[in-house]
């Protein structure tokens, strides 16, 4: 076998996976299964050999060399030249391509930066109608209202159809029936409670009208009797004086 003639600046005693290299350009070829990629350092490019291609590049294997090639300008990572797996900021991924705006029927997901299907709101079936009621009661009236409800089973995405109402009310007519004890509605019980509290508050206010006079003590009654007796004696004395003067 003839010896391989190398360029004076090419060496086979390289490090870092290089098969051949130069002092100025770094790796010129790589060992088997390694990928050759050019890295820019300032104004010059240096060849390096890696086990896999860095982010922003895709690898291609050829018979004589395994090479890393840069992805398209709008692509952050890619599988090959025509299939991107992650877009750069400001672009949305759709079927391997990076787009400024998503196609018709799709919407942009600003969290994953992908074009996704539009999700519309979905609701369950209506519940049965509630009993006919009025002011919280099911008795003591002829015309009232009944209600039915449903639940939201799927909330919409940004461009999806909004959710419908989750409750409906309609008028209803029933045969009037008398309320039994304990069937009074919540509002009726509240009204009676307020009325009772008002009456109790009124009773608690002191009222001087109609009150019996306070009872006298025995000492007060005795003094009062003495004063009355003394007063009668004075009156009797005055009357006797008047009678004597009339006789003379």
Automatic annotation (TrEMBL):
<protein>
    <submittedName>
        <fullName>R-spondin 3</fullName>
    </submittedName>
</protein>
<keyword id="KW-0716">Sensory transduction</keyword>
<feature type="region of interest" description="Disordered">
    <location>
        <begin position="177"/>
        <end position="248"/>
    </location>
</feature>
<comment type="similarity">
    <text>Belongs to the R-spondin family.</text>
</comment>
<dbReference type="Pfam" id="PF15913">
    <property type="entry name" value="Furin-like_2"/>
</dbReference>
<keyword id="KW-0964">Secreted</keyword>
<keyword id="KW-0358">Heparin-binding</keyword>
<dbReference type="Pfam" id="PF19028">
    <property type="entry name" value="TSP1_spondin"/>
</dbReference>
<dbReference type="InterPro" id="IPR000884">
    <property type="entry name" value="TSP1_rpt"/>
</dbReference>
<dbReference type="InterPro" id="IPR009030">
    <property type="entry name" value="Growth_fac_rcpt_cys_sf"/>
</dbReference>
<keyword id="KW-0879">Wnt signaling pathway</keyword>
<keyword id="KW-1015">Disulfide bond</keyword>
<feature type="compositionally biased region" description="Basic and acidic residues">
    <location>
        <begin position="197"/>
        <end position="228"/>
    </location>
</feature>
<keyword id="KW-0732">Signal</keyword>
<dbReference type="InterPro" id="IPR051514">
    <property type="entry name" value="R-spondin"/>
</dbReference>
<dbReference type="InterPro" id="IPR036383">
    <property type="entry name" value="TSP1_rpt_sf"/>
</dbReference>
<feature type="domain" description="Spondin-like TSP1">
    <location>
        <begin position="121"/>
        <end position="176"/>
    </location>
</feature>
<feature type="domain" description="R-spondin Fu-CRD">
    <location>
        <begin position="16"/>
        <end position="115"/>
    </location>
</feature>
<keyword id="KW-0325">Glycoprotein</keyword>
<dbReference type="InterPro" id="IPR044004">
    <property type="entry name" value="TSP1_spondin_dom"/>
</dbReference>
<dbReference type="InterPro" id="IPR043601">
    <property type="entry name" value="Rspo_Fu-CRD_dom"/>
</dbReference>
<dbReference type="InterPro" id="IPR006212">
    <property type="entry name" value="Furin_repeat"/>
</dbReference>
